[in-house]
Write a structure and sequence with these properties.
This protein is mainly beta. Helix content is 3%, strand content 53%.
């Protein structure tokens, strides 16, 4: 059904009954998990690098390789409802667990947050920055933190309420996947051939206002 085209992105619907695939030609197909049958397909213009489905199952977001944008598709009406402008290749997209926010990560080292709650998909004022290309993201179950993995081998932990980075976790290579456990107590990260498990409550957090004090405390 994808005519031997490379499948670049896969995502389950929230109920786990369907899986959505997207290929290099922008063809998106929805499949029934139980019987493997295809229920529908539609085209999104451009090479799709990443996809995510909103927790209520209404919206599909696709990150595009060229064109400096992501596309929001309404799965119930089968129509495109928004184009989210952002410089670079959009390699990671992720909804918050409560469905109120959408995060999109770019090859140009930026993470944008978008308002999903009112259906406007308007961009939030705060822009999150990392050092390299954004490759992976996940919101914590309580939506307090957003973890971002980049091509320079770091995971950045952002506090949503403060709108700032509060921790940085080093890795041996680019971080290609991130996932919080269901209770939020652990964070799994993938770099090269290694999966690391982090005890979230034990990660030391550093607030921006305390950077100087923290740095001085570590000097000999």
């Amino acid at each position: 059904s994808h005519d031997n085209k490379v499948i670049d992105a896969v995502a389950f619907t929230p109920d786990g009954k369907q899986v959505i695939t997207a290929d290099e030609n922008g063809l998106v197909c929805i499949w029934n998990v139980e019987n493997g049958e295809k229920s529908q397909c539609f085209n999104i213009e451009g090479v799709i690098l990443s996809i995510a489905v909103s927790p209520n199952g209404k919206y599909l977001v696709a990150g595009i390789e060229e064109g400096n944008h992501s596309i929001v598709w309404d799965l119930t009406t089968q129509t495109q409802v928004a184009t989210l402008e952002q410089a670079g290749r959009i390699k990671a997209v992720q909804f918050s667990k409560d469905g109120k926010l959408l995060a999109t990560g770019s090859s140009e080292t930026t993470v944008y947050l978008w308002n999903v709650e009112d259906g406007s998909f308007s961009r939030m004022e705060n822009k999150l920055l990392v050092n390299g290309e954004v490759l992976s993201m996940d919101f914590s179950p309580d939506n307090k933190h957003l973890a971002v993995g980049d091509s320079t081998g770091y995971v950045y932990l952002f506090d949503q309420a403060l709108g700032q980075e509060v921790a940085r976790l080093p890795h041996v290579d680019k971080v290609t996947s991130i996932s919080f456990s269901a209770d939020g107590s652990q964070l799994a990260t993938v770099a090269r051939k290694t999966v690391l498990l982090w005890n979230v409550p034990s990660i030391p957090l550093v607030m921006r206002d305390n950077l100087m004090e923290t740095a001085c405390a570590r000097l000999i």
